[in-house]
Amino acid sequence: MVIMEQHRLKIASKSENLALVEKLIDEVCEAYNIGEDNYGNILIALTEAVNNAILHGNKGNPEKNVDISFDSGKDWIKFIVKDEGPGFNSDGLPDPTAPENLEKPSGRGIFLMRNLADKVEFADEGRSVSLNFQLAAAN
Fold first, then answer.
1. CATH superfamily of domain region 2-134
2. What is the pTM of this model?
3. Of 4, 129, 131, 137, whose CB has the highest number of CB atoms within 10 Å?
């Protein structure tokens, strides 16, 4: 199932639906004249958030959905990603830069989101994450 509205995209929890998220990012960045630096940060952070929602939140269950919405202002844009999973404690995650975690194949998604977005907030017991990006003022 894919539902697309002006400020919202709802997808089934399937990895192939990440292509729809990338299309949404392209359309939003073009419509809002978002520069290349912000585009890259938004692309990586948002796809990580959606991938986490699909794989960890909804456990890859295609019967469950991921809801992606966005809002914007003059110099900011915010994306919210919600899953239908059990939630998690975002404060209890291991540091992926710690020596004992460097070789692990996962655990970097939230670290990337926190380093690429200007503000990351978890809500609804970890089932919702908002990614806020400050945009450079247009010249």
1. Histidine kinase-like ATPase, C-terminal domain (3.30.565.10)
2. 0.89
3. 129
Evaluate whether 82 touches 10 at the Cβ level (below 8 Å): no
| 77-130 tens-digit pLDDT | 999 999 999 999 888 777 777 777 777 767 788 999 999 999 999 999 999 999
Torsion from C-alpha of 3, 24, 32, 5, nearest 10 degrees: 0
Decide if 14 contacts 54 (C-beta within 8 A).
yes
| Radius of gyration for the alpha carbons in the chain, expressed in angstroms and rounded | 15
CA separation (Å) from 120 to 5, 12, 15, 117, 133? 24, 23, 23, 7, 9
- Do the Cβ atoms of 82 and 124 come closer than 8 Å? yes
User: What CA–CA distance (Å, rounded) separates 19 from 21?
Assistant: 5
Structure tokens of 57? Answer: 């939140």
The ranges assigned to domains in the chain are: 2-134
Q: By the 8 A CB rule, do 76 and 130 touch?
A: no
